[in-house]
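[job 4471] stage=fold_predict status=RUNNING
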Amino acid sequence: MRKYYRIFISHSWSYDNNYKLIIDLIEKNGLIFFEHSVQEIDLPQMNATDDDVNEAIEHHMLGANCILILSSFYLAYKNRIDKEIEIAKRHHKPIIAVEPLDYKKTAQAVRDSADRIVALQGALIVNTIKQLG
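[job 4471] inference complete, writing structure tokens
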């Protein structure tokens, strides 16, 4: 019987193409998973407050086996991703930082929080999810 993994992709509504790339890489590498990420449609309204967003993130993150953070988006979304890291740590969720192949500037906050840092390669991401999730 194959294990069914539950993943949360950090701040996924802000980087649609990269989010789709991650999902595609995971699917192409045969991982059976349920995606727990917060989407814009999950937010109460376009005028969602920080508390609304944090509540939605925490609610979705609770059921996840592990958290994926796209490290190249940290500087643009520092406050939001810091909050996601805080929630993940509070609930003892393993964090996988995913670096684009040509990206070597992962923020120290992400490095310090990540249980693993992997390149944006499907097999590496899937193997790490299996190991930590």
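[job 4471] summary: The chain has one domain: 5-132.
[job 4471] exit 0
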